[in-house]
Protein backbone atom coordinates (compact mmCIF):
# COMPACT_ATOMS: atom_id res chain seq x y z
CA UNK A 1 0.00 0.00 0.00
CA UNK A 2 1.28 3.44 -0.97
CA UNK A 3 0.31 6.76 0.62
CA UNK A 4 1.60 10.31 0.70
CA UNK A 5 2.03 11.89 4.16
CA UNK A 6 1.59 15.65 3.90
CA UNK A 7 3.12 18.55 5.80
CA UNK A 8 1.36 21.20 7.88
CA UNK A 9 1.88 24.88 8.60
CA UNK A 10 1.16 26.85 11.75
CA UNK A 11 -1.26 29.74 11.43
CA UNK A 12 -0.30 31.78 14.46
CA UNK A 13 1.60 30.31 17.39
CA UNK A 14 1.31 31.66 20.93
CA UNK A 15 3.52 30.28 23.69
CA UNK A 16 1.27 30.85 26.68
CA UNK A 17 3.14 29.38 29.68
CA UNK A 18 5.92 27.09 30.84
CA UNK A 19 4.67 23.95 32.54
CA UNK A 20 6.06 22.32 35.70
CA UNK A 21 7.27 19.39 33.57
CA UNK A 22 9.49 21.73 31.53
CA UNK A 23 7.30 21.73 28.42
CA UNK A 24 5.37 24.78 27.19
CA UNK A 25 1.67 25.23 26.60
CA UNK A 26 0.76 26.85 23.32
CA UNK A 27 -2.07 27.87 21.00
CA UNK A 28 -1.88 27.42 17.25
CA UNK A 29 -3.86 26.44 14.17
CA UNK A 30 -2.53 23.50 12.16
CA UNK A 31 -3.35 23.55 8.45
CA UNK A 32 -2.43 20.70 6.05
CA UNK A 33 -0.51 21.62 2.90
CA UNK A 34 0.26 19.61 -0.27
CA UNK A 35 3.98 19.02 0.32
CA UNK A 36 4.33 15.27 0.71
CA UNK A 37 6.59 12.32 1.38
CA UNK A 38 5.87 8.90 -0.14
CA UNK A 39 5.36 5.93 2.19
CA UNK A 40 4.81 2.33 1.16
CA UNK A 41 4.46 -0.83 3.23
CA UNK A 42 4.72 -4.39 1.94
CA UNK A 43 4.21 -7.50 4.09
CA UNK A 44 7.51 -9.42 4.18
CA UNK A 45 7.88 -13.20 4.13
CA UNK A 46 10.90 -13.09 6.40
CA UNK A 47 12.58 -10.52 8.62
CA UNK A 48 15.75 -8.87 7.40
CA UNK A 49 17.40 -9.18 10.81
CA UNK A 50 16.43 -8.77 14.42
CA UNK A 51 13.61 -6.31 13.65
CA UNK A 52 10.25 -7.18 12.13
CA UNK A 53 10.16 -3.71 10.50
CA UNK A 54 12.73 -3.06 7.78
CA UNK A 55 12.89 0.59 6.68
CA UNK A 56 14.38 1.71 3.35
CA UNK A 57 14.98 5.46 3.17
CA UNK A 58 15.25 7.53 -0.01
CA UNK A 59 15.40 11.21 -0.92
CA UNK A 60 16.54 13.74 1.64
CA UNK A 61 19.09 12.64 4.20
CA UNK A 62 17.54 11.65 7.51
CA UNK A 63 19.77 11.67 10.56
CA UNK A 64 19.90 8.69 12.91
CA UNK A 65 19.49 4.97 12.47
CA UNK A 66 16.53 3.73 10.39
CA UNK A 67 15.26 1.67 13.33
CA UNK A 68 14.97 4.87 15.39
CA UNK A 69 12.80 6.57 12.77
CA UNK A 70 9.27 7.44 13.90
CA UNK A 71 7.90 5.20 11.15
CA UNK A 72 9.53 2.17 12.76
CA UNK A 73 8.46 3.34 16.20
CA UNK A 74 4.87 3.49 14.92
CA UNK A 75 5.15 -0.09 13.68
CA UNK A 76 6.55 -1.37 16.99
CA UNK A 77 3.89 0.53 18.94
CA UNK A 78 1.12 -1.41 17.17
CA UNK A 79 3.15 -4.62 17.02
CA UNK A 80 3.23 -4.72 20.82
CA UNK A 81 -0.58 -4.92 20.87
CA UNK A 82 -1.37 -6.75 17.62
CA UNK A 83 1.69 -8.92 16.85
CA UNK A 84 2.00 -7.62 13.29
CA UNK A 85 3.54 -9.60 10.44
CA UNK A 86 7.09 -8.65 9.33
CA UNK A 87 6.90 -5.58 7.10
CA UNK A 88 9.09 -3.86 4.52
CA UNK A 89 8.74 -0.07 4.60
CA UNK A 90 9.84 2.32 1.85
CA UNK A 91 9.99 6.01 2.76
CA UNK A 92 10.92 8.68 0.22
CA UNK A 93 11.54 11.99 2.01
CA UNK A 94 10.55 15.25 0.33
CA UNK A 95 9.24 17.30 3.27
CA UNK A 96 12.27 19.17 4.65
CA UNK A 97 13.43 18.15 8.12
CA UNK A 98 13.89 20.75 10.84
CA UNK A 99 11.45 23.04 9.08
CA UNK A 100 8.48 23.33 11.45
CA UNK A 101 6.36 21.37 8.94
CA UNK A 102 5.77 18.17 10.91
CA UNK A 103 7.21 15.81 8.29
CA UNK A 104 8.35 13.12 10.72
CA UNK A 105 5.09 13.29 12.65
CA UNK A 106 3.10 12.96 9.42
CA UNK A 107 5.08 9.88 8.38
CA UNK A 108 4.42 8.23 11.76
CA UNK A 109 0.69 9.01 11.74
CA UNK A 110 0.22 7.79 8.17
CA UNK A 111 2.15 4.64 9.09
CA UNK A 112 -0.34 3.95 11.88
CA UNK A 113 -3.26 4.48 9.50
CA UNK A 114 -1.77 2.23 6.83
CA UNK A 115 -0.97 -0.60 9.24
CA UNK A 116 -4.52 -0.40 10.55
CA UNK A 117 -5.93 -0.68 7.04
CA UNK A 118 -3.54 -3.24 5.54
CA UNK A 119 -3.73 -5.64 8.46
CA UNK A 120 -7.41 -4.92 9.22
CA UNK A 121 -6.78 -4.12 12.87
CA UNK A 122 -10.09 -2.32 13.40
CA UNK A 123 -8.58 0.59 15.33
CA UNK A 124 -10.90 3.62 15.55
CA UNK A 125 -9.75 7.16 14.75
CA UNK A 126 -9.88 8.07 18.44
CA UNK A 127 -7.69 5.09 19.27
CA UNK A 128 -5.28 5.95 16.45
CA UNK A 129 -4.98 9.47 17.87
CA UNK A 130 -4.10 8.00 21.27
CA UNK A 131 -1.38 5.86 19.71
CA UNK A 132 -0.07 8.82 17.70
CA UNK A 133 0.14 11.02 20.80
CA UNK A 134 2.56 8.50 22.30
CA UNK A 135 4.89 9.12 19.34
CA UNK A 136 4.92 12.93 19.45
CA UNK A 137 2.84 15.93 20.45
CA UNK A 138 1.64 16.85 16.95
CA UNK A 139 1.49 13.33 15.46
CA UNK A 140 -2.18 12.97 16.33
CA UNK A 141 -3.11 15.94 14.12
CA UNK A 142 -2.28 13.91 11.01
CA UNK A 143 -4.74 11.14 11.87
CA UNK A 144 -7.75 13.26 10.88
CA UNK A 145 -5.54 15.68 8.92
CA UNK A 146 -7.85 18.67 8.74
CA UNK A 147 -7.65 22.28 9.99
CA UNK A 148 -7.38 22.14 13.77
CA UNK A 149 -6.95 24.44 16.74
CA UNK A 150 -4.26 22.93 18.99
CA UNK A 151 -3.58 23.67 22.65
CA UNK A 152 -1.59 22.10 25.47
CA UNK A 153 1.80 21.02 24.11
CA UNK A 154 0.18 20.77 20.68
CA UNK A 155 -1.83 17.65 21.51
CA UNK A 156 -5.27 18.96 22.54
CA UNK A 157 -7.36 19.44 19.43
CA UNK A 158 -10.55 21.28 18.51
CA UNK A 159 -11.87 21.11 14.92
CA UNK A 160 -12.36 24.44 13.16
CA UNK A 161 -13.98 25.58 9.94
CA UNK A 162 -11.30 27.04 7.69
CA UNK A 163 -10.62 26.77 3.97
CA UNK A 164 -7.75 28.43 2.12
CA UNK A 165 -9.03 27.28 -1.25
CA UNK A 166 -8.41 30.13 -3.64
CA UNK A 167 -4.97 30.84 -2.19
CA UNK A 168 -1.55 29.80 -3.36
CA UNK A 169 1.24 28.95 -0.96
CA UNK A 170 4.91 29.68 -1.46
CA UNK A 171 7.12 27.80 0.98
CA UNK A 172 10.84 28.39 1.49
CA UNK A 173 13.09 26.30 3.74
CA UNK A 174 16.54 27.94 3.93
CA UNK A 175 19.69 25.97 4.61
CA UNK A 176 19.55 27.00 8.28
CA UNK A 177 19.04 24.78 11.31
CA UNK A 178 17.00 26.19 14.19
CA UNK A 179 17.17 24.30 17.48
CA UNK A 180 13.64 23.91 18.80
CA UNK A 181 15.01 23.54 22.33
CA UNK A 182 16.96 26.80 22.03
CA UNK A 183 14.04 28.60 20.42
CA UNK A 184 11.83 27.66 23.38
CA UNK A 185 14.57 28.70 25.82
CA UNK A 186 14.59 32.23 24.37
CA UNK A 187 10.81 32.64 24.53
CA UNK A 188 9.04 34.65 27.22
CA UNK A 189 5.63 32.97 27.55
CA UNK A 190 2.61 35.24 27.67
CA UNK A 191 -1.09 34.95 27.03
CA UNK A 192 -2.17 36.77 23.89
CA UNK A 193 -5.23 38.98 24.03
CA UNK A 194 -6.76 37.14 21.06
CA UNK A 195 -6.47 33.46 20.20
CA UNK A 196 -5.44 32.26 16.71
CA UNK A 197 -8.75 30.38 16.67
CA UNK A 198 -10.57 33.72 16.67
CA UNK A 199 -8.17 35.59 14.38
CA UNK A 200 -8.49 33.07 11.54
CA UNK A 201 -12.18 33.97 11.32
CA UNK A 202 -11.10 37.36 9.95
CA UNK A 203 -10.43 37.83 6.23
CA UNK A 204 -6.98 36.47 5.36
CA UNK A 205 -5.94 39.96 4.23
CA UNK A 206 -6.29 41.11 7.87
CA UNK A 207 -4.20 38.32 9.41
CA UNK A 208 -0.99 40.27 8.87
CA UNK A 209 -2.01 42.74 11.58
CA UNK A 210 -3.06 40.21 14.22
CA UNK A 211 -1.79 36.66 13.58
CA UNK A 212 1.73 36.20 14.97
CA UNK A 213 4.23 33.40 15.60
CA UNK A 214 5.94 34.04 18.94
CA UNK A 215 9.04 32.15 17.81
CA UNK A 216 9.83 34.88 15.29
CA UNK A 217 10.84 37.20 18.15
CA UNK A 218 13.63 34.84 19.21
CA UNK A 219 14.57 33.28 15.87
CA UNK A 220 14.72 36.33 13.57
CA UNK A 221 17.43 38.22 15.55
CA UNK A 222 19.58 35.06 15.54
CA UNK A 223 18.99 34.26 11.87
CA UNK A 224 18.31 37.45 9.87
CA UNK A 225 18.07 35.55 6.53
CA UNK A 226 14.86 33.89 7.78
CA UNK A 227 13.35 37.31 8.52
CA UNK A 228 14.45 38.47 5.08
CA UNK A 229 12.54 35.63 3.43
CA UNK A 230 9.37 36.74 5.19
CA UNK A 231 9.94 40.31 4.02
CA UNK A 232 10.48 39.03 0.47
CA UNK A 233 7.13 37.21 0.59
CA UNK A 234 5.36 40.48 1.34
CA UNK A 235 7.38 42.30 -1.33
CA UNK A 236 6.15 39.73 -3.86
CA UNK A 237 2.54 40.37 -2.89
CA UNK A 238 1.71 37.85 -0.15
CA UNK A 239 -1.47 38.64 1.75
CA UNK A 240 -0.01 36.84 4.77
CA UNK A 241 3.46 35.45 5.58
CA UNK A 242 4.91 33.72 8.61
CA UNK A 243 7.49 31.30 9.87
CA UNK A 244 6.01 27.86 10.54
CA UNK A 245 6.53 26.37 13.98
CA UNK A 246 9.98 27.11 15.38
CA UNK A 247 11.36 27.35 11.83
CA UNK A 248 13.25 27.52 9.74
CA UNK A 249 10.66 27.39 6.93
CA UNK A 250 8.68 30.49 5.95
CA UNK A 251 5.46 30.50 3.95
CA UNK A 252 3.51 33.15 2.12
CA UNK A 253 -0.15 33.02 1.12
CA UNK A 254 -0.96 34.60 -2.24
CA UNK A 255 -4.24 35.00 -4.05
CA UNK A 256 -4.72 32.23 -6.61
CA UNK A 257 -3.39 33.19 -10.01
CA UNK A 258 -0.59 35.35 -8.63
CA UNK A 259 2.43 34.98 -10.88
CA UNK A 260 5.57 34.51 -8.81
CA UNK A 261 9.09 34.70 -10.23
CA UNK A 262 11.63 31.92 -9.91
CA UNK A 263 13.15 32.27 -6.47
CA UNK A 264 16.83 31.74 -5.77
CA UNK A 265 17.67 31.80 -2.07
CA UNK A 266 20.95 29.94 -2.42
CA UNK A 267 22.27 26.42 -2.54
CA UNK A 268 20.38 23.75 -0.62
CA UNK A 269 17.21 25.82 -0.21
CA UNK A 270 13.86 24.06 -0.61
CA UNK A 271 11.22 26.09 -2.47
CA UNK A 272 7.64 24.96 -3.13
CA UNK A 273 4.67 26.67 -4.76
CA UNK A 274 1.18 25.21 -5.07
CA UNK A 275 -2.55 25.76 -4.72
CA UNK A 276 -4.26 25.14 -1.38
CA UNK A 277 -7.54 23.36 -0.79
Jot down its keywords:
29% helix; 4-stranded mixed sheet; 277 residues; alpha+beta; 12 strands; 4-stranded antiparallel sheet; Ribosomal Protein S5, domain 2
CATH topology of the largest domain: Ribosomal Protein S5, domain 2
Largest sheet: 4 strands, mixed
Which second-level CATH architecture of the largest domain applies? 2-Layer Sandwich
Envelope shape: globular
Helix content, binned percent: 25-40%
Query: Which strand order spans the largest sheet, edge to edge or round the barrel?
Result: 1-4-6-5
Quote the average pLDDT. Answer: 92
CATH class category of the largest domain: Alpha Beta
Rounded to an integer in angstroms, the radius of gyration calculated over CA atoms is 19 Å
What features would you describe in this structure?
- This protein is α+β, with helices and mostly antiparallel strands.
- The chain folds into two domains: 2-159, Ribosomal Protein S5, domain 2 (2-Layer Sandwich); 167-275, GHMP kinase, C-terminal domain (Alpha-Beta Plaits).
- It contains nine helices and twelve strands.
- The protein has helices at residues 70-82, 103-118, 125-133, 141-144, 180-185, 196-199, 204-210, 215-222, 224-235; strands at residues 2-3, 6-18, 24-36, 38-43, 53-59, 87-93, 148-151, 156-159, 167-173, 240-243, 250-255, 270-275.
- It has a four-stranded mixed beta sheet, covered by helices on one side. It has a four-stranded antiparallel beta sheet with strand order 2-3-7-8.
- Strand 10 (240-243) and strand 11 (250-255) form a beta hairpin.
- Helix 1 (70-82) runs parallel beside helix 2, helix 2 (103-118) crosses helix 3 and helix 8 crosses helix 9 (224-235).
- The longest helix has 16 residues, at 103-118.
- The protein is globular, with a radius of gyration of 19 Å.
- The two termini are 25 Å apart.
Amino acid sequence: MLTFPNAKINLGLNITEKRPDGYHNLETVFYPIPVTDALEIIPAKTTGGTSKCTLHLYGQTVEGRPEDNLVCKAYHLLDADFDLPPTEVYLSKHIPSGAGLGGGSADAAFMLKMLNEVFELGITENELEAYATRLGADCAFFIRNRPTFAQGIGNIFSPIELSLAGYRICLVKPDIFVSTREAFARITPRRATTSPKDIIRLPVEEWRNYLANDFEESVFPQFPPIAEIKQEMYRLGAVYASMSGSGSSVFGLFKAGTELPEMDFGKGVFVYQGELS
